[in-house]
Amino acid sequence: MTTTPTPEPAMVEQTPGPETGRKKGSKSAASAARDGLSGRTASAISLVIALLWTLPTFGLFVSSFRPETDAKTTGWWNVVTDPSFTLDNYREVLSGEGNAGLMTFLVNTIVITIPGVLIPITLATLAAYAFAWMKFKGRDALFVAMFALQIVPIQVTLIPLLSLYTSPPFNLRPLAGRDAPAGGLYELWLSHAIFAMPLAIFLLHNFMREIPGELIESARVDGAGHVEIFTRIMLPLMAPAIAAFGIFQFLWVWNDLLVALVFSGPDVAPLTVKLVNLVGQRGEDWHLLSAGAFVSLVIPLAVFLGLQRYFVRGLLAGSVKG
Amino acid sequence: MTTPEKLIQMVIAIALFVGVMAAILLLTARLKSRNGERVQAVAFVGPALFLVAVGLLYPALKTAYQSFFGANGDNFVGFDNYVDIFTNSSLLTVLRNTMLWVLLVPTLSTFIGLVYAVLVDRSRFEKLAKALVFLPMAISLVGASIIWKFVYEYKGTENEQIGLLNGVLKALGFETYNFLFYAPWNTLFLIVILIWIQAGFAMTILSASIKAIPDDIVEAASLDGVSGLKMFFFITVPSIRPSLIVVLTTISIGTLKVFDIVQTSTGGRFDTSVLAYEYYFQYFVSLNQGLAAALAVVIFALVTPIIIYNVRQMRRLEAR
Q: B173: helix, coil or strand?
C-alpha cells in the first residue's frame, strides 16, 4: 500500500519520445503494455468487460421495479419500449403476512452483524497489540500458531461447535437449543468472533508493527503502562486499520449464509437464509426475488461505496504485504 | 422474539461485552511490575486465544477424529468414509466438480482482473470502470446467485424469454438452453458466478501492484524497444509475480469453501455439488456425521498446502 504512487493526473498519455523527461511523459507498465493493442481495441475490450459485470445486476434491479405480470412474462429489456414501474414488489416482500416479511429478517441481520463485528475487532485489536508490543514468553510461537489456524476451514469446526453449544461441559448453560439466551443470538455472535479472529489478528498486527517503536518506548520511559499506551496512542493511530478490517468483517457477517444456516434458529435467521428459502419456494416469482435481493444488497452496498477507500486499503494491506 | 426485544438483547450483549473489557483494562492498568505485565499480557491475548482454542483448534481435532466413525458417530469404521469419497460415483462427481471450480475460478478471475487492470490503467474513466467491476464484492453470494439465476432463466423457445442469455439466444435464432440443468456444463455456469465476484478482488490488488512497478524499469525496457504484448509478458507480469501468487492462492482458498452459490442456484441437484456443499448436505440432510466429517477433513487437506506455499512465499519476501 505504501508503495502505491498516486496516478499522475495526465488523462491521456501521449506516446513519449525516448528522451522525454522522467516524470512528465513517462508511462506506466500497464499503459506501455496496452500499446500493443490499438487504443480502440483496448477500450472496446474493457467496455465489454464492464458491461458484462454490470448488466446482470442492472437487469435484476430493473426487474424489481416492474409490475408482477410484466416481470414474469417479458424480459426486463422491454422497459425501453414499454416502461412501467411500481413499488409494489418492495411493499410486498417487506411487509409479508405476519412475520414472513423481509423486514423481520433485515432486523435479524442487523442484530447479528453489529456485535458480530464489534466483538471480534475489539478482541483482535487487543491481541494484536500484545503480539506486536508486549514481551512475554512464547509470544512468537503463539503468533505463528494463531496465523496457522487460518488453515482451518469453517466446515471442519461446525459439528463439534454445534455440540458444544447445545450440550456444553461443566453444566454451563447451553447457547443453542430451545432455552438458549436471546433466542440463540449469542452462539451466532460467538461463532462470527471465532472465525474472524486469526485473520483479524494477523492483519491488525501487521499494521501495528508499522508504527515506529520509539513512540512506544518513549511513552514507556515516561511511565505509561500498556493499557494507557494502547488506549491513548495506539487506538487513534490504528483507526484507519480498524475501520478497514471492520468493513471486511461487516461484509462477511452480513453476507454469511453457512454460519447462519447451521447455528441460527428460524426466530433469528438473517436475510440470506430467508432469500435462499424464497428461491426454493417461489423460484418463479421474479418480481419478489429481485426486490428481496435488492433489500439485502442496499446496506452493504452503501457501506461499501461510502467506505471503499478504507476497504481497498485493508484489502491491499492483507494481500500485497512486503 | 419481537423486533424491540431483539434490539434490546443486542444492546445488552454489547453493554456486557464493553463492560467486561473495560473492567479488565481498568483492573490491569495499575499493574506495572514485571508480574503485573504478565497479567496484562494474559488479559490482552487471553480472550482471543481462548476463543480460537475452543472454536477452531478443538473442533478441528474432534472432526478429524469423528471422520473415522459411522453415520451416527458411534461405531468405528476406520478409513471407510475416505474410501467412500474416492470410490462412490456421486462423490467422485463432487470431487470432479470441486476440481473444476478450483482450477477455473482462480485462473480465470485473475486473468480477467489482470487484463482489465491493464486496460483501464490511467484511462479517463479509471475510477468508474474499476468500481463497476469491484462492486460484486459487496454482494452476498446468495444475492449474486439470484442475479445470475435471472440471467440464466429458462423458458421454452416458443415462449417470451425473461432471462437475458436465452433472450439473446432466441433473438439470434437459436434454441433456448436450460443452463443450470445439464451436467457437467451447469457446473461451468455456476463457476461463472464466482469468477464474476472474484475478478474485482484480483483487479484491485493487481492494479495497485502494477502502479507500483518502478518507472525506470518500464522506461529502460521501452528504450530497448520493448512494447505492447512483449512489455506485458516480460515486464509487467514478472514484476507483479508476488501479488499474482497471493491473488491466486486467496481465491483458491475461497473457492474451496464455496457453498452458497451451489445452495442457492441448484440446491446441489443436477450433479452440481461440491465438497463444501456436500459436507452440509451429508450432515444436515442425509444425517451421515462420519462422512460429513471426512469431507471436511478433505477440504482441510486441500487448503493446507496452498496456505503453506503462501506462507513460504511471504517469508521469502520478508527475508529479502
A: coil
